[in-house]
Amino acid sequence: MPRIKLTLPIPKSNWTKIPNYLVDSLLPKLKDTELRILLVILRYTVGFNKPGKSVQLSYRMLQMKTGRGSAAISDALKALTARGLIHSESRYLQKSAPLSKQIHFENQGSIYKDNK
User: What pTM value is reported for the model?
Assistant: First the structure.
């Protein structure tokens, strides 16, 4: 088995904590886009010292931050909601496509539970 060394520089500040449960238990179960969106949500909640707060993220912003299209993002948001990891609600401008998503990330939710 090869030894792996991290060469990514780790700054003393300006970084976001990732729950161990996400890596240890959820990572094998999440699809790529689901993980990317969850990391973006963590960045804008925990990374801004606002765990448990809601963030408003547009599809355009999620596309930019994740590198994924709107269909993949929509599917991933549905899957994350079904898993109980996020709560999201769409805000519409008239009767068109969603203007943005209001994302609720619960820091006491299942992502932080130590399910053994």
Answer: 0.75
